Amino acid sequence: MFNNNEIEQQVAEFLLQIKAIKLQPNNPFTWASGWKSPIYCDNRVTLSHPSIRTYIRQQLTVAIQEKFGSVGCIAGVATAGIPQGALVAQELGLPFIYVRSKPKEHGTGSLIEGDTSTTTGKRVVVIEDLISTGKSSLQAVEALRAAGFEVAGLAAIFSYGFDVATENFKQASCPFVTLSNYNALIKYAEEHQYIADKDVAILKQWRENPAAWGQIASS
C-alpha cells in the first residue's frame, strides 16, 4: 500500500541526509528562472546512493501501479527523469523511452528517443525527478500525446507544491503523483533540527509566493 505520510517523510529524510536538498533561508540560491530561493533540489544525487536509489525506484513503482493501474511503457523527461525512468521501467519490466527538451539537431531530428515503432499507442506514465511549475514536464506530456501515446499521468520524486503547477497539470488533464513535497520536507526539517525555528516562517513565506519573496530578498 502506498502510504503517503510515511513515504513523504522517509523521502524527505533521505533527500536532506544526502544533501540532495539544501536549505539556505539566509543565503538563498538563484534559480535559472532568476528566482531567489531558500531551497535547492538536485535529485540526481540519489543515484549515487544505492539503498536510497532502490527505495525511490520501488516506491515510484508502487505509486504508479496504485495511481495509474496497468501501463505499457515508461517515459523519462530529459535529463534528470531519464535514469529514474529507466530504473522504474526495469522494475516493471516495461519498454523505456525518453523525451528531449527539443528535437535532436542532427540525424533523425528525434524529439522522443527509443523504439517508438513498438511503443506508440501504448498507455504511458511519464517520470520526472522534480516538479516546480510543471512546464517542462507538461511539454513532454504534450510531445508524447502528439506522437500518439496515451498519457496515463506523471510520477515524480519531489514537488514544491506550487499552486501554478497544480493548475497547469489540471489544465493539461494530466494527473500526477509525487513521493514527497515541500510541506512534508519543512515538517521533517523542523522536527529534526535541519533548520532553526526562526527560519521556518521564511521557508513557508517563500512557498506561498516565491517570485515576490525573491524580489524582497534581492532588494
Helix content: 40-55%
Sheet bearing the most strands, described?
6 strands, mixed
Uncertain residue segments = none
Strands, count: 10
Query: How would you state the average pLDDT, rounded?
Result: 92
Count every helix, treating DSSP H or I runs of 4 or more residues as helices.
9
Strand content: 15-25%
Distance between the termini: 47 Å
The radius of gyration is 18 Å
Structural class: alpha/beta
H/E element sequence: HEEEEHEHEEHEHEHEHHH
Shape: globular
Strand order of the largest sheet: 7-6-5-8-9-10
Keywords: Glycosyltransferase, Magnesium, Pyrimidine biosynthesis, Transferase
Catalytic activity: orotidine 5'-phosphate + diphosphate = orotate + 5-phospho-alpha-D-ribose 1-diphosphate
Function: Catalyzes the transfer of a ribosyl phosphate group from 5-phosphoribose 1-diphosphate to orotate, leading to the formation of orotidine monophosphate (OMP).
Family: Belongs to the purine/pyrimidine phosphoribosyltransferase family. PyrE subfamily.
What does this structure look like?
The strands form 3 sheets. Strands 7-6-5-8-9-10 form a 6-stranded mixed beta sheet, with helices on both faces. Strands 1-4 form a two-stranded antiparallel ribbon. Strands 2-3 form a two-stranded antiparallel ribbon. Helix 5 links the parallel strand 8 and strand 9. The N and C termini lie far apart (47 Å). It contains 9 helices and 10 strands. It is 46% helix and 21% strand. The chain has 219 residues and is α/β, with parallel strands linked by helices. Keywords: Glycosyltransferase, Magnesium, Pyrimidine biosynthesis, Transferase.
